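Hi R.,

Here's the chain you asked about this morning:
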Amino acid sequence: RPSGYDHVASRRGATGIPAPFVPGGSHSNVYVGSLPAGIHDGSFRQLFCSFGTIVSTKVVSELHYGFVKYATMAEAQAAIDAMNGVQVNGLTLQVRFANKQ
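And the predicted structure, written out as tokens:
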């Protein structure tokens, strides 16, 4: 099997063709870019908890980005609408639906 075969095959539908990406499709995972240095999971979660039920968070602090997964797509959209372009510690957050993979 080629390298990555299982990963690619797992994304395929019944036709064997990978599903196309639809921006803001049917998922509630939010990408947050331009995070300030030193942010950790607790403070990251606190930034986004007022928009709905958070299922999970993931911060990649050394690369200054993270993900927030909400219980619903509407909660994710509310977070995007409220937080995209907001300044945190002098940095402007980039908040959008994550590319579903």
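The CA atoms of residues 28 and 77 lie 8 Å apart.

Let me know if you need anything else.
M.
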